[in-house]
Specification:
The complex is a heterodimer of chains A (about 110) and B (about 110). Chain A is mainly beta. Chain A is about 0% helix and about 55% strand. Chain A is built from no helices and eleven strands. In chain A, strands 2, 4, 5, 9, 10 and 11 form a six-stranded mixed beta sheet that branches. Chain A is globular and about 40 Å long. Chain B is about 0% helix and about 50% strand. Chain B contains no helices and eleven strands. Chain B has strands at about 5, 10-15, 20-25, 30-40, 40-50, 55, 65-70, 75-80, 85-95, 105, 110. The model of chain B has no long low-confidence stretch (mean pLDDT about 95). The chains are: A mainly beta (about 110), B mainly beta (about 110). At the A-B interface, strand 5 and strand 9 of A face strand 5 and strand 10 of B.
Amino acid sequence: QKEVEQDPGPLSVPEGAIVSLNCTYSNSAFQYFMWYRQYSRKGPELLMYTYSSGNKEDGRFTAQVDKSSKYISLFIRDSQPSDSATYLCAMSGYTGANSKLTFGKGITLSVRP
Amino acid sequence: NAGVTQTPKFQVLKTGQSMTLQCAQDMNHNSMYWYRQDPGMGLRLIYYSASEGTTDKGEVPNGYNVSRLNKREFSLRLESAAPSQTSVYFCASSAEDRSETQYFGPGTRLLVL
């Protein structure tokens, strides 16, 4: 079993839809949970960051972590064509020197106008 | 502010040729990373450098070498390229106390024939 599993997609939704992206993980030591967004032919960029369990909201984006289920989610409300990108979840057990991120494989989202 | 820069953007090699991928960051970050991204495989860490003068292997180091030339620059060398090394290579950097926030370069697309 891979440490981090992410639905491969792709996912296509109409503009205005609510999007739910999910990752599961097996390593109970993970404490830091990130979502990176990657536009086509660009490098990934950090979208959301959550420490431990709970929710975090930033505009139309909500990140949710359920450590008891080893499950994280990213919700996008009122999705826009500009949200079309690949979304990668990432996790680590600690922050600081020598810390490494474990990434999911990414899911490609397309928002149709 | 350039952030993380990578050269070249695109390269075609023949099997057995060597090349060096260059990466530089201007954010005064201690940590730097090299990833490869392949379809269906996500981002996989090749090597990382927690600070100037140190380098460590990541998940897929075979066939690669790295040099942390100074705090700004981290290069990746392929001594004898193989078709299996066809990929998109990303360099990233992070501050020592914020390793969950990695800043990525635009990537180098490498094709090995």
